[in-house]
Amino acid sequence: MNVAEEMVKVAERLTENFVAQTDPKVFVTFYLLTVIYEDLQALEYYGSMQANDFVRGHLHRPWGTETLSGELEAAVSAEAVEVDTAADLVRLTSRGKEMLRYIEGIFRESGFFTSRSRLIRLNNFNHVDDIASMMEALAPTACEHRKTVVELSGIQPGMAVLELGCGTGALTFEAGLFQRVGPDGRLVATDPSTSMLASVRRKRETYNAHWVEVVHGKAERLPFPANTFDSVIGYAFLHLTDMDEALREIARVLKPGGSLITLHPLHFPARNEFFLEWFAPLLKTGGTPRNQDNLPGPDTVPSAMEPHFEIVHLQSLDLEMHYTSPRTVVEFFVGIVDVFEEQMATLPWRARHDMVQQLIKRGEEVCRKYPPESLVEMHPGQFIRTIVRK
Ligand SMILES: C[S@@+](CC[C@H](N)C(=O)[O-])C[C@H]1O[C@@H](n2cnc3c(N)ncnc32)[C@H](O)[C@@H]1O
Questions:
Q1: Residue 259: inside a domain, yes or no?
Q2: Which of 60, 82, 227, 373 would you call most buried, defined as having the most Cβ atoms within 10 angstroms of its Cβ?
Q3: What angle do CA 131, 135, 139 make, to 5 degrees?
């Protein structure tokens, strides 16, 4: 796993806060639960493991600097695993399986799995070299889509506007949001990914748009005082956030009467034949049918908005997605946006990497088998414009 510097900083800050606010014993217990979970999960997935592979964490924790021999001893004495000394194999016992299910339950209920995948996703975005070219290959009509969002936004020249999840600045620049706000207004483009913000800064120079500010930030914690903006706008970001926290923050920074404009993708229940064939190995691993992807349903965002916003415009804006470039498709959906997080979370580290490679290969076969025009799907999207209740 590539770990971006920001992610290390976030992890350090969260750990310090956690330790400061709670009993250090809780922290140690939590740490132990995560490592036991990783060990047992890998054994369940692979059935058994060479003792040497286990101790070195080859398949499930290769980033560790110490061997896992202490963990193996502890797991043996807890009767969670057994070692077949003749074959030099480590196996999960039925008691180990029970422990695994118990820890899984704790992690699911406490929201740990959800926050972990959100952090992983943030980190993934930080490693994308060129999201704009990826988006161009996957969704060639996205530029038109973004222009429609600006058209429907109701944003007027001179307003103070905040863009969330701006990525490389496609909405701000290519879709003309900066021109609409104009030099008498203020447009703040934010994203948690510093690599993307570097690209936004370059575009600001190219377009000579001095009224555009570039600020590092995520929707759940906005570095602005209350009542700062007339509008908050974002294209394909809200589904990546902790929606309740993000919506509360957005409401806080909006002035009374201010608006929130978002376009986000929705859960996609009916998949084409080629898609089911391509992603079959992933769709088979865990996950409930409702959660084949982790995208919001049609009522998810409107009901999350209810306490803070009044919806004044809601319409479907579907996006054409082209599945003709297997590597880009798999890297984007599985490697970056992680839409199958529930399925991927059930896999140990090595299996996640193998799954990505397997999906790329299957994609190449699918692309040979199906004509390119049948490899296009309309992905449901939801456009919402609201007025803040304050
Ligand atoms: C699919 S990209 C869309 C980028 C851009 N809006 C566009 O139109 O191309 C999603 C963006 O949301 C950002 N993002 C991820 N988590 C976020 C969060 N919690 N708050 C704000 N933005 C987030 C990512 O870094 C990424 O740039």
A1: yes
A2: 60
A3: 175
